[in-house]
Specification:
The complex is a heterodimer of chains A (84) and B (147). With 84 residues, chain A is mainly alpha-helical. Chain A has one domain: ACP-like (Non-ribosomal Peptide Synthetase Peptidyl Carrier Protein, Chain A), CATH 1.10.1200. Helix content of chain A is 62%, strand content 0%. In chain A, helix 1 crosses helix 3. The longest helix of chain A has 15 residues. Chain A is globular. With 147 residues, chain B is α+β, with helices and mostly antiparallel strands. Chain B has a single domain, classed as Thiol Ester Dehydrase, Chain A, CATH 3.10.129. Chain B contains two helices and six strands, in the order H-E-E-H-E-E-E-E. Chain B has a six-stranded antiparallel beta sheet with strand order 1-2-4-5-6-3, covered by helices on one side. The two termini of chain B are 20 Å apart. Classes of the chains: A mainly alpha (84), B alpha+beta (147). Chains A and B meet through helix 3 of A and strand 3 and strand 6 of B.
Chain lengths: 84, 147
């Protein structure tokens, strides 16, 4: 899976929980789920659970704590995919 | 963990404590009850001269038994003198029957998942005739908290 495909899948997962559409339109690696997209902590858990289903991976507490931005999430997902 | 201990750990107090008994609790589900008192503060205004339990209060009863009490049980090995902090994050409840003053209601809650401190449950409320009063899902963030 290329980086672009992964990003596109992640955007689809995140979109239903986004409160700040303007920030979502200009999404980049630095975009922070909570501070930029105004996703609440409960919905961030849903993002993680959806990521697990989509990619067939399991995210542990350490992974979850890292997944605050788009690029950090991609790193965690790639790491878990590589470990599969 | 004793069922009375769960209630003692709840962070609520009168007039906003809505749990009388925990009847059953396990890792996956909980059952409890609450009897609405004639004197509950909200009957004075809901409705004028026609007291009926507000849907938000039924939701609160379901959340206190179904999510907060179950959350305390799930954290039972991590709580010493701590209580828990609870923040309701989502509710989706349908209401079927009115609940009047002095009625006793039973809440049954089944855990859908408990991940990263988020507890999501399927929750149903029954009256004393075992008829469904309300039903739906409630989610909340739950974690140990130093009061």
């Amino acid at each position: 899976m290329t980086q672009e495909e992964l990003l596109s899948k992640l955007k689809t997962i995140v979109e239903p929980y986004v409160q700040n559409q303007e920030e979502f339109q200009k999404l980049s690696g630095d975009t922070d789920f909570i501070n930029d997209l105004d996703i609440n902590s409960a919905n961030l858990v849903d993002v993680i659970l959806d990521v697990e289903d989509e990619f067939g991976i399991e995210i542990d507490n350490d992974g979850m704590e890292k997944m605050l931005t788009v690029s950090a999430s991609i790193d965690v997902i790639l790491e878990k995919l590589a470990a599969k | 963990m004793l069922q009375e201990e769960i209630i003692k750990k709840l962070p609520y107090d009168a007039p906003f404590l809505f749990v009388d008994n925990i009847i059953h609790v396990s890792e996956d589900c909980i059952k409890g009850d609450y009897t609405l008192k004639q004197s509950e503060y909200f009957y004075k205004g809901h409705f004028r001269d026609n007291p009926i339990t507000p849907g938000v209060i039924l939701t609160e009863i379901m959340a206190q038994i179904g999510v907060a009490c179950l959350g305390i049980f799930l954290f039972r090995n991590e709580l010493d003198n701590q209580t828990i902090g609870v923040a309701m994050s989502n509710t989706n409840i349908d209401f079927y029957k009115p609940v009047l003053p002095s009625e006793k209601v039973f809440v049954v809650s089944e855990k859908e998942y408990f991940r990263f401190n988020k507890l999501k449950c399927k929750v149903s409320m029954y009256n004393e005739k075992d008829v469904v009063v309300a039903k739906g899902t409630i989610s909340g963030m739950v974690k140990p908290w130093n009061a």
